[in-house]
Amino acid sequence: MSIVTPNQLCPNPIAAPRASALPLAMALPPRREDEDNGPGVAIITRTKPQVKKPPLYRVLLLNDDFTPMEFVIHVLQSFFNKSYDDAYVIMMHVHQNGVGECGVFTYEVAETKVTLVMDFARKHQHPLQCVMERN
Q: What's the order of all strands across the beta sheet hosting 56-62?
């Protein structure tokens, strides 16, 4: 009678029964050569989330021949918090060039300001146009 070794029963070393005292589920995973950490050591890194700035939109007033200059100054002071001097400069720019920038805002704020200005102008029966465009 001869003694049979596990390799003789199953020549494939992967499929051969393990001679280890630990069950297969408790065996440690194989170490990679590029790892410097000891067994059971984990490195936890925390990444800072990247926050993207929202796109900005320019709110513009368009010139017309019927809206009084004083009304445009009032709109700039009321809805865009401009001083009288700043409002006058913007109003003159609109008057001479046909368009003037009231401010730069996020989409929701720009949309709200355009709607408020347009409603206010209609309420006072002025054809003042206010639009927004991506900056």
A: 99-106, 56-62, 129-134
